[in-house]
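Case study B.
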Amino acid sequence: MTRQGIFDHIDQHLDSHICKIQELVRQPSVSLLTLGLRECAELVRQHLAEVGCQETALVDVGDAYPGVWGRLDSGAQKTILYYSHYDVRPVGHETWDWPPFGAELVEMAPYKRVILGRGARASKGPLQTWLNALQSIKAVEGRLPVNVLFLIEGAEILGSCNYLKLADVYKDRLKEAQALLSPGASQNAKGEVSVVLGFKGLIYLELEASGDAWGRGPIGGSVHSATNAIVDSPAWRLIHALATLTTPDGTRLVVPGLEHVFDERKTIGAAERALLQRLQERFGDSDPNTIIPGLSPSTPVKVFKGGLTGKRILEEYLYAPSINISGLRSGYTGPGSKSFLLPHSAVATLDLRMITDMDAQEILHKLRAHLDREGFKDIRIHVYGAYNWGQTDPHADVVQATLKTLEAYGYPAVIWPMVAFGGPWAHIPKALGIPALRNSALGYGDRAATSNEFYVVEGDGKVPGLAETERFCVDLLYNYAGI
Amino acid sequence: MTRQGIFDHIDQHLDSHICKIQELVRQPSVSLLTLGLRECAELVRQHLAEVGCQETALVDVGDAYPGVWGRLDSGAQKTILYYSHYDVRPVGHETWDWPPFGAELVEMAPYKRVILGRGARASKGPLQTWLNALQSIKAVEGRLPVNVLFLIEGAEILGSCNYLKLADVYKDRLKEAQALLSPGASQNAKGEVSVVLGFKGLIYLELEASGDAWGRGPIGGSVHSATNAIVDSPAWRLIHALATLTTPDGTRLVVPGLEHVFDERKTIGAAERALLQRLQERFGDSDPNTIIPGLSPSTPVKVFKGGLTGKRILEEYLYAPSINISGLRSGYTGPGSKSFLLPHSAVATLDLRMITDMDAQEILHKLRAHLDREGFKDIRIHVYGAYNWGQTDPHADVVQATLKTLEAYGYPAVIWPMVAFGGPWAHIPKALGIPALRNSALGYGDRAATSNEFYVVEGDGKVPGLAETERFCVDLLYNYAGI
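Model:
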C-alpha cells in the first residue's frame, strides 16, 4: 500500500508545508480595501503551478478581484472542481497579540502550535493544506488519482461578487467536472466534523437612494439639515422604499410575484427528514444560542421569530426564507450626535436567503420591477452576489467518500441536510448538475471574524494537526477515485 | 468722550487680547469626544473672573458637559444675558495646514493675520472678543454700562443637550435679564452683517430600535445574518416605525395631533412681510444654492421640494416646518459590503424644525404616544435638544442699538426676520419674555465645519480686524445702555 509512502512524505516535508501556508498568510489580501489582491492571486497561481497544474492563470473580469484558474490533468477518470478564496477579512479594531500578517507559529493553549494571522483559518490554511496533500501525492506517485480544476476567487468576503463572471470565462472547462469537492477545516473544538449537503440561495445587495440619481435632494454631497424645509431627503426616500418591501414586522417579502417564496417551504423527503431529526435529537434541549451556526451565547436571542420554540427553531433556521438588513448608513454614522446634515445618499445592505426554484436573477428582476412600480426608479440596486440554492444527495460519491474517510479517521460526522449560508459553491454545481461538498473535512481553526485568527498545526488529541489533516485529504481523494 | 480712551486701551492691549483668544483655542474641547471639556470650562470661568464677574462657577448637571456661569454686577440699570458655547467640532479627516489646536497667527490671503484653529471661528474667537471689550471698558471706566449674566454651554455641537438644565439651575438669576445679547462674528466676506430676529423651534433626537429594549432580536451585539430566518430584526423594526411618521415623500409629519404643525404657517404681519420682501429683493434671481444658509453650490439642489421656485424658496425655507433624517446607522456602516450581520440595534437621528405655539415637550409627548400606539413602545427616543421657536420685535432696544451701531460703523445690515436654525438662544429669552439678538454683529471667520478654521485678526478693508470688532462691542454696549 503506497499511501504510507505519501504519508511519510508529508511528515518529512511538514516544515515546508507549514512555510507554504505562512507564505500565503503573509501576503495581505483584503478585498474590502482592495489591498494586495493581485499579489496574492499571483502567489496562489504559483502554488498551483508548483503542484503540477498544466494550466494556470489569473482571471481578470474587469474589476479589482482577479480569480485564479488552474487545471491539473492527471489522465484520471474523474475530474473535480476545487473551490476556495484567497481574500481575507479586514484586520478590524480588536487588539492582536501577534502581527496580523506575520503568520507566526505560536502556542495557543491547548494547541502546541498554530499559525496565527488573518486568513489562516479562512481560508488560506485549508487551501494550502489541500495543495500540500496534492504535492505529496505527486512527489511519491507521480500523478493524482483525479484531475483537478481550480477556480479560486478573491472576493468571497464581499459576497462573491464576481464568481459567476469568473465561472463564465471557463464555462466549457467547468463542464469537465463531475463534482465540486473542496475539503477543509470544518471541525469544531471537540473534533466533530460538519458535513453540509445543502445551502440556501443568497442574494446580497445594496439599495441606495441619492440626490444624484433622483435629481432631487442635494447632489454630490450633504447640505445643512435646516434646508430640509425646501430640500427633499434621499434618506426618507430609502425608508419609504424599504417599507414597501416587507410586512410591518419585517419578516415577509411582500413584493408582487415573490410572496410565495416566503410562503412556500421545501418538501422534505423521508431521507432528509431523518437527517433533520438526527440533528434535532443531537441538539436535544440545548440552548439554540449554543447550537445554531451564527448565534452566540454572548449576544443571545431570548425570543425567536413568531414565538418559535424547541425543534421548530432548527427546522425554520434551515428551511425558512429571510430578508435581512445587514447595514444602514446615511449621514454621520458615528456614535452620538454630530452635525446637522441632510445627507445626499442613504444605503441599506440586504441579504435574502431562500430555497426556491425561482432563479436568483428572476428574483432581482421582480424586486427591480416592484421598486419601479412604486415610483422608486431612481433607487439603485447594486448586487454583490446572487446565488441559487443547491443540495447534494447523501448517496453521491463525494459524500460517501467523505463519510467513509471520516469514519476511518474516527472523527464523528454531523450531517446538515441544509444550512442557511449560500454562495457560488452551491449555485455552480447545481447549474452544472454535479454533486458538491465544500469543507466537510478535517481541520480546525477559529477567530476568523476577530483578532488572533489561527489555524491548528499541532492538535490536542481532539482536533488533528496539519499532517493528519493532509493525510485525510490524501485518503479522501483516493476514496473518491475508488482506488 | 471717554470711549476713545477705551479704544486706545484696546489698541494698546491688542496683543494680550489675541493671546487670550489663543489660550482658549489651544485648550481642546470636543464635546463629541468629551475631550478637554472640564479644562476648557475652567479656563472660560477664569476669563470671566478676570473681567470682573463677582460670581463664577462651573455648572454641573450630572453629565460630561459643564456649563460656565458668571455674573458681573455693575450696579447698572440694565442687565443682559450673554449666551455662548466653548465646545468645538471634532477636527475631522480633512488635512490641516497648521495644528488644529495650535492657534497660530498666520497670514491667510487676503487677511494679513488670522487665528487658525478649531473653534477660532465657532465660537471661542467671538466669545473672547466680547470679553476683551468688557475688559477694556472696565480698565478705563471702572465699571460697565450694563450688568452681564453669562451662561455658557459645552454641548452646543451636540444640539445643546443640557442647556435647559443649566438654565434651570440659575432660573431665579436669569429673571434679572432684560435681553439676551451676545454679539459676534456674523459678517460674510463682503462685510455684510446678518441680523437675525427669529429662530425656528428645534427638536433634535435619536430613535433607536434594539434587541435589548425589544426583548426580541439579538441582545447586546449582532449575530450572523443567516439567522434572520428565526431571529427578528431591530433594523426592520426601525424602518417600519420611521415609515409611520411621515407621508411617503418624507415631507410631512403624519403623527396624530401634529399634522397641523406641518400644515399651519405663521401669520406674517405687514412689518415682517416687508423685511421678507427686502430679503427676497436683495437676493433677486440668484441661484438659491448661493444664498440660502446651509446650501452650497458645491453640492447643489436642482429641484426644490414640491417644485418650489423663485421667491417661494426663501419663504418656505424661513417659515415651513421640516422633519429631517440627519443620520442612519445599523450594522457595518463603512463603504462596500463587509460582513453578514443581523445588527442588534439601528439608530436614526432626526431633527424637526417648526414655528408653532405647541411646546417642544408637548410635540415629544405626541411623538412618544404615536410610537406607543403603533406598537413601538420599545423604540427609545433620546432627546439631544428640544427648543421652542422665538422671534424678537425689530423695535426692541437690543435690535435698535445694534442697527444704530452698525450704521455708525458703515457695515450693511441684512435683516432676517427668521432663520431655519434654532436652539436655547431662542427658547430661553422667549420663556423669559425678553428680546434676543445673538451674533448679529461685526467679526469674520470661516471654515468652522472643515479644516483650517480661522478668525480674522487683521481685516482686508471689507471685514474688520479684531480691534475694530472690539470697539464695535464697546459702542453697542453703550448704545444699548442708552449712555
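Chain A touches chain B through 95 residues (CB under 8 Å). The remaining cases will be described in the next quarterly update.
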